[in-house]
Ribonuclease
Amino acid sequence: MRYLIGIDEAGRGPLAGPVAVGAVMVPADFDWSVLDGVRDSKKLSEKKREEIFERTRTLEESHSLRFTVSTSSAAYIDKYGIVPAIKRALSEALSRLEVEAKDCRVLLDGSLSAPAEYVYQETIIGGDDTEPAISLASIMAKVTRDRLMKRLSPKYPAYDFHLHKGYGTAAHIRKIAEVGFCELHRTTFCSRILLEARS
């Protein structure tokens, strides 16, 4: 096997913004010591995630690895559901790596699965904390999505997306109750919460 690919998603649960799927491809004999500290993105500080993200970009520039992050929008999530949205982004991320499926071993976190042509694939519960390739994919997806929500925040100043990144914090839910939705909101995720906030 020539390559190892790790895949994970970020943003499955927020009330607003896209879901992001990260895919990281390394040579089968990749030396993970060059990325010390890689673990589940949820267990790292924002500063540490950003440091690892930038180190990974430097490694990509030197052709030591490749990574990509694909997203599915809130509108897509509302139309098709979160699981199809994740599958669509996952397939796109893999295709962007432009590698023969038979040359790769693919490791995925949780309930994720790759398209059938990736015959050497394994889904690992908790893999984002045990497999460095999955952990790195989770970091790349999380940082990419967080940066996007920060960039979009000034366009929607009522919601403070730069603070909560679209997650269902008490302050975010209050804002939805006060001013309603914007185009970044997943209305299918919000309708019940909105009713509860107003009751």
